[in-house]
Amino acid sequence: MIVTATNVLALISSPDDPNPEIKPSDVNLIFNYIHSTPSLMTEETWTTMCIPGISEEYLLHVYCKFHSKHLGIVFISTSDE
């Protein structure tokens, strides 16, 4: 995801999976989690999350890097590698 302080600008997926199943409610949950945790907006960070729409056997691994308070990149993966 490419994000600003108030919006998700773009969702970009892997070429291997051009149409990932992602729900707007999941994007909203991730976006709100990032903005409710100050360290995710000020430091380059990896964190794990559990999203209700995803099977319990998977945790999301979320990478956040904000280049300024108005522009950030969020990488989301189900793999911990």
Describe this structure in words.
With 81 residues, this protein is α+β, with helices and mostly antiparallel strands. Helix content is 22%, strand content 32%. It has two helices and five strands, in the order ββααβββ. It has a five-stranded antiparallel beta sheet with strand order 2-1-5-4-3. It is globular, with a radius of gyration of 12 Å.
Describe the secondary structure blueprint for this structure.
Elements (H helix, E strand, L loop, with lengths): L1 E2 L4 E3 L13 H13 L1 H5 L2 E5 L10 E9 L2 E7 L4
Antiparallel strand pairs: 1-2, 1-5, 3-4, 4-5
Taken from the alpha-carbon principal axes, the silhouette is: globular
Measured by DSSP, the beta-strand proportion falls in: 25-35%
Give the termini distance in whole angstroms.
19 Å
Radius of gyration based on Cα positions? 12 Å
The portion of residues assigned to helices is: 10-25%
Structural class: alpha+beta
Low-confidence stretches: none
Q: What is the count of helical runs? A: 2
Query: Going across the major beta sheet, what is the strand order?
Result: 2-1-5-4-3
Largest sheet: 5 strands, antiparallel
Record field, number of beta strands: 5
SSE order, one letter for each helix or strand: EEHHEEE
In round numbers, the mean pLDDT is 80
